[in-house]
Write a structure and sequence with these properties.
about 10% strand, about 325 residues, 12 helices, alpha/beta, Rossmann fold
Length: about 325
């Protein structure tokens, strides 16, 4: 069966329809699934075909709203909710224990959640909030639920872990590895924190693919410029306006190509299910196709990826083994 060529305007629904045979029967966990967000749209379209979609969030009320809305749209959806606060290592451990008690294996884990793009803020563990939510929390979660992911592997299927990064990582200098575990308020800026957290996710995909020795295929991606709940938050708005992402009125700056949420969510579904990616674990995607040439050199560097992995193992006090 030949698959279509996806483009910048392809929607998540269109990708899911094209890849229905790959999605059918699969169990998927998606972080960050609040309404008016990319993770919600991915959960909605995947719930039409997947065996099980686990949606997560730190706010139980918003999580329940997402569940009810998806079930209204997709009555046949098999959904499960999981309370997960990626900014707290203890909360991640608690959520992971719940996942490990599930009877099903996990075919796909999608790390979609992100912290607000905001001023310097430390988590309960003394970590910078953007780095904790995009990189450190997902790293620990992946490590702890790895047995569930590995259990989905067969002779003909390799489970996947997907990191929703950003093309904006290219706008910043190389990541300061020392600051990952020891945040420095004096050198931090709102957008530098964002660039580095997103670049770390690209490095995570490269290193996870390498260290799992073919047992897990990991991918990273940029969804493109999309107006979602996260960049509409009041705590983010001033910096987004100052950075020229939003207009002084707080609207999407027309100098960028803005995608709709369905268009932005498409690349995640491609990374999670397109069988054409099987031969190239660790690649980065933009506009629903492989775009390794768009990765900043520092975010594609194997040595940096290995160092970041080792540093992060030290931060969380957990070592991966496959």
């Amino acid at each position: 069966m030949s698959l279509p060529t996806f483009t910048i305007s392809t929607t998540a629904e269109e990708v899911a329809t094209a890849l229905v045979e790959q999605i059918r029967g699969k169990n998927v966990l998606i972080t960050g699934t609040s309404m008016n967000g990319l993770g919600f749209e991915d959960a909605r379209v995947l719930a039409k075909h997947a065996n099980l979609v686990i949606i997560t969030g730190y706010n139980a009320e918003r999580l329940k709203l997402s569940e009810e809305t998806i079930k209204k749209d997709v009555p046949s959806a098999n959904l499960r909710t999981l309370t997960l606060d990626l900014s707290s290592l203890d909360a991640v451990r608690k959520a992971a224990a719940e996942v490990n008690a599930y009877p099903e294996p996990l075919h796909v884990v999608i790390h979609n959640a992100a912290a607000s793009i905001s001023k310097f803020k430390l988590t309960v563990d003394g970590l910078e909030s953007q780095m904790a939510t995009s990189h450190i929390g997902p790293f620990l979660l992946t490590k702890l639920i790895a047995p569930k992911i590995l259990a989905a592997g067969t002779a003909s299927y390799t489970p996947r872990v997907v990191f929703v990064s950003s093309s904006a990582h290219r706008m910043g200098p190389a990541i300061d590895l020392d600051a990952v575990g020891k945040p420095n308020a004096s050198t931090y800026t709102t957008f530098l924190g964002y660039f580095h957290a997103k670049g770390a996710q690209i490095l995570d995909a490269i290193e996870l693919s390498k260290r799992s020795h073919g047992k897990i295929n990991a991918y990273s991606l940029s969804p493109g410029a999309v107006s979602t709940n996260i960049n509409q938050k009041e705590e983010s708005k001033a910096d987004m306006i100052a950075g020229g992402i939003l207009t002084p009125e707080g609207l999407p700056n027309p100098k960028f190509h803005w995608k709709t949420i369905p268009e932005g969510a498409a690349t995640t579904v491609v990374a999670a299910f397109d069988p054409r990616l099987d031969a190239t674990p660790g690649v980065y995607l933009e506009d629903a196709v492989v775009a390794n040439d768009q990765v900043a050199p520092w975010a594609a560097d194997p040595e940096t990826a290995s160092k970041l992995w080792t540093i992060t193992e030290g931060i969380v006090g957990e070592s991966f083994s496959f």
